[in-house]
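As the next step, I needed to go through one protein, both as residues and as discrete backbone shape codes, included below for the reader:
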Amino acid sequence: MLLGTIHSTGPALVLTAKGDDVIILGIFSRIPEDVRPSWVRIDEAGEDFHLTGLKKTSVIKTEKITVLHRSLIKKELGRLSPELFKQVKRVLMRTLGIE
């Protein structure tokens, strides 16, 4: 899945695009000590971290789901490995209560 930069807010995971709308999950580099079960860590020590385009270890917060107009995506940063995206999907389904 595509990682992009949202105008003035930072990186996000683009889940899907429908017409002019995109559904995204927020990505954050400030990680508190108590990590929630709804977060997926993207570790800079990971084998596929270089694919993401992120600068440092971050978390995808699956409860931070948003629909935006496509024009707000500034640029593509990179991609998640298929394994990491499977993990995001599992956690997202649990967060939304649809597993």
Summary: Helices lie at 82-96. The two ends are 20 Å apart (CA to CA). The chain is about 15% helix and 45% strand. The longest strand covers residues 58-69.
